[in-house]
Sequence to fold (110 residues):
Amino acid sequence: MANKLKTGFWVAAYIRRLQLHEIPTFVTKHGDSDAGAVLVKSNTLDGNAMLFQRSFDVDGTRNWVVLTKGPEQIVDEAIQRQLGFDPDIWVLEVEDKQGRTLLDEAGLNG
Fold:
């Protein structure tokens, strides 16, 4: 059985990849370093945002899906609800006027 990539390591690598593209990213909630789930908030700095979470297809493939989008306040409320279900979640905020998250790039579904 293959070892699962620890969440803290994945988060650090993701933030570094965003830094290489000069996309500011902040850890707004530090979750479990070994196995915490990750939510990625894409803040377009115009009052709107999107919230991504990782989903698993029936064949085990991991994909990033939009959990919610709209006014930033609505997205922040969704984050708070998710934290109520699972306090070990990581929350990352990516700030980019173009809405770039790089989640569609190879290697970010691990």
Q: What stands out?
A: Helices lie at 7-20, 72-85. DSSP finds two helices and five strands in the chain. The first helix runs from residue 7 to 20. The longest strand covers residues 62-71.
